[in-house]
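# nightly structure sweep
# worker-07 picked up a monomer target from the shared queue
# config: single-sequence mode, recycle default, output format = structure tokens
# input follows
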Amino acid sequence: MPFIVTEACIKCKYTDCVEVCPVDCFHEGPNMLVIDPDECIDCTLCEPECPVEAIMSDDDVPENQKAFIELNATLSREWPVISQVREAPPDADEWKDVKDKLQHLKR
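# output follows
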């Protein structure tokens, strides 16, 4: 059961999770990160590092976030791997408590 990045990451894109990942399964898009489910080894190291709680096991993804399971799989094939921490967007803190952000996802 791989881990999934959910909607909370959109427009926040904190990269604390990337630093602890032992297999470089994170991929970076314009305003979100995703996890490659084929590379994820379910180590659980990334989950507690996310300041917006956007990362969870695919078994724990709430019904209203299930689309992100497929989005992670699809976008991880399109976006480049990220393996180093980067600065969050300047307005990340303004977005961290916003709900229903899917319309803001940039591909």
